[in-house]
Structure formats: C-alpha cells, structure tokens
What does this fold into?
Amino acid sequence: MNIRTRLFSIIILGAIVSMFSCNKALNTNLTDPNGVGIDAISGKDVFAQALVSTAANKVGANITTGSNNYDYCQNWMGYWARNTDWAASGLQAQIENFQLPTSASNGVWSSVYHNIYDYNYVIANSAPHSILPGAAKIMRAMAFQDLVDQFGNIPYFQAGNPAITTPVYDSATTIYADLVNQIDTAIIEINASQSTADDASDVMFKGSKTQWIQFGNTILLRILLRQVPNTSNQSAIATQINNIVSQGGGFLVAGEDALINPGFADATTEQSPFWSTYGFQPGGSPGPPVVGTYYQDYNFFCANVNMMAFLDSTSDPRLSYFYGLNASTPAGYGANVLGSSNTPVSQTSPVGPGILKTASMPALIFSANQSLFMQAEAAQRGLISGNYTSLYQQAVEESFRYLGVPNSTTAADNFISGSTSGLVNMGISTNPLETILYQKWVAECELDPYEAYSDYRRTGYPVIPVVTTSVPAGTPMPKRLLYPQSEYTQNQVNLQANLGTTTQPSSDIYRKIFWGM
It folds into this structure.
C-alpha cells in the first residue's frame, strides 16, 4: 500500500490512537477500516497522519463551525476580512467584536492536544534507531509552543500520560525552558539515528537528518526569539542562541521549506488541507473563470484593506499572488475592512494564485523565508553573527520564490533596490528591525497568520490602522485566547487552581503572554 492510500486510511484511526498517548502494550479489539488491530500499529503508521494534522491545524477549518482554526489571526493581522455576502454571526462576529468566549477555544485546544498525543505515540512506538522519535519530539515541541503562546499556562508534564485524565497546569516559562531541552535531546537522537524503513513515512524531509536538525534549530530559534525583547533573561537567551550556532547544524536556508505531501490529489478526502478549506471541490478551480463548486470559505473571506493598501503603497508585485482578480474595479483588485458590510462583493478579491495553487499542492509547516527573517532579526539584534541586510534580502527572495513569481530572485532584488519605502529598502530604512518585521508580516500573508500575530504581540509590528470597525477606535487587539469550555467540564479543579478563581474573566484576553509587550 502506498503512503497516500495508507495515510488516508488511518486518519480516522489516528484520532483513536491519539486518545491513548504512548502505551505500546495497549491491547484492544479496535481496528482501522482495513481491519488492522491497534496493537499492530507502529509509529511509522501514525507519523504521516500526524504531520497532516499539524498542517490542517495551522491552516484552519470552516470558521462557521468554530473548530480547529487560526482564522482569527487572518482577520486581526489584516490579511482577510468577511465577504459582504455574509452577515457577521457566531464565531466571526465574536472575532470582529474582540469577544471570543471560552467555546471559541475548544477546537484549537483539542485538535492541538490530539496532535501532540499522536507524536507521543510515534515517540514510543517506532523502530530502534529510527529518525521518527527525534522528529516527533521537534513537532511536539512546536505544537506545545503554539498552545502556550495562545493560552499561557497549560497542562504539559502530565498531559501525555494516559493514566492522568485531569493533568495539572504548568507555568508557561517552565514549559518554554523544557521545550529547549526537548529539542536539544531530539537533535542528539536524530544525529544518532540510522536509515530505516520508517523513513518512508517522513513526508516532510524523507528521513534527512540534516534537514530535521536544521528544522529543529529553526524552531529553537523561534522559541528563543519569542522571549526577545520583553523578558528579563536576555543574557541567557543570547547564550542559548549562541549554543545553537556553535552546534553547527544550522537553520533552514533558501529553498528549504518545511513542506509535506503524502500524495495529495484532487479527490474527495485527499486534497491538500488549505485547498480543501479555502478552495474548490474536486474538479473545480478559481480560474478565471471560476470552475466548479467552491468550498464556503473561498466565498466567506476576501482581501483585507490593511494588507491590500500596504502592498499597493509599496508597489509590491506579490499583490497579484496573494489576492485574485475581482469582477468590477478598474485595477481588478479590491478589499474590505474587517467588520464592515459596505464594500460590494464584486469589488473584493479572493485568495490569490500564489496561495491557492492546486488541490495537490504541498502543505506548509514552516517556510524558508520565515527562517531567514528570524535569522535577520537575530543578526540585527546582535544575537548571531551574519549580515542582517543579506539575510533579509534572501528572506524576501524566498517569499517571491514560494509564491511562484517568475525570475523570483531578480524580481525580489529589483523590488527592494527600486523601492522608495524604508519598509522595503533596507538601504534607506531608519529602523532595520521594523523593516524586517514588516516584510515578514507580508511574507506570512494567508500562509502563517498565527506567527504574524505572535510577532505583533511581541514587537508591536506591524502597526495596523483599523483592525475592525466593530469595536470603538483605539480598542487594543486581544493578546490571548480564553481557556476552552471543555476544560471547565473535564479538568475544572486544575483549571481553577491555575486561574486562582472559578471562572476566567473575559478581560483576560487582554492579559499578555509572559513574553509579550
């Protein structure tokens, strides 16, 4: 059975496996649709599905269901707005009003924890000397960081123990410190691993030790940069970043996107996660002209005026890759303000061809341009050696490449050197850090809104003129999610011990994560 067929036959089973974390001795009569007993499933049978789940969580699901999505970041970070064919209701209204309740967090919390349990299973049930346990530890660390960065304190040390159904909460700072240790251990294990048959289930780096180590170091850099500049342990952060560089494994570089593709195809249940959420049913395409039937979210969202205006003000050629043509405006592109119902649908732009490519397109876990932007920031802050201007330029070049801009390197270089904006041209920038972070925000448009939201909470960049018209002018953007309603029903004692009160106040959405400003 090939990887694609096998992957999609175990997706449902993966949810069952994830419930039991990592006990290989588990012996039940549960079977997958192909009749394979759960005690016969090993780490290699789960790893590809776990990577797909990570990508799906990152992309999001239908916002009207309130499940498994970071679409609130797409809205708040100025990438998307609501298409005016739709009235604000349910979760979308809560996003636009900055009033996300506890129920809005259920999908994110449960889906990421289930993904963590899948990686736990891989760690405990893989072949000796396999690369998969180390790789799974890196992916698990990435998932735990995403939870901390949205909620603060979370269950961590007890969360993977199947015997503990009500795990205690651990402090965000303690978790962060342990995530560094976990990735350090993972890299040691990957270095010591050997090529095995398990490599076939690695649908991201195909068993490459070099790339997994680079990716691990890149996630380490993300963890450490998150704590700059608003925490008190700056010297320790600098030392840890220096240790990454000294270790010699390097970071993801140009051309090394962390992408997965187990065999996505234009068929029911087999489409790439982004396409199957924001694209078209099998056989359809955005055209022009539009062919076939689109999924609801292709029509639900449109371009946000904040990003559209910024791209237009800097004459950025990526505009036509981030956003598609509309029906009636002279320039062919248009956008709406989040919270507004004034812009006719015919004057707004849908998701563009650089983002919505094909039903079989690889799913993005982390891009090379994100790695290079982080390296540029670290170099500009003096945390690593290197020329931040060169790293910045490579990052922009990589953004152009990923979107499919023809002659991408030359196009990016001409864009930078020919720009009269200090938010593009580093040569005339009066604030290099601001330039790096603005262009990182642009490169993450629609691809990784959550990472942009985290940078915003950490640095204040970009400055978004009007986030939503549904709140009074000057209302700050929320800084976290409230704990999910599911924790009040399933882990109430530990949640309340963590909160120090019976119910989390709604004002907590404005309480910063420990690394925030």
Summary: DSSP finds 20 helices and six strands in the chain.
